[in-house]
Amino acid sequence: LTQEQLAARTGTKKSYISRLENGKIDIQISTLFKIIEEGLGKRLGFTML
Fold this sequence. Notes:
By secondary structure, the chain is mainly α. It has helices at residues 3-10, 14-21, 29-39.
């Protein structure tokens, strides 16, 4: 999966995906869920203890 493909699946820009991958920006929880669920087709869950 390329940065361009992931960006297209999640409605973001390739440059945003690149900055995330390189640790140049922080990610919001909502965006993290969107990338994982819509972009990668996976589910993400959190448990608070």
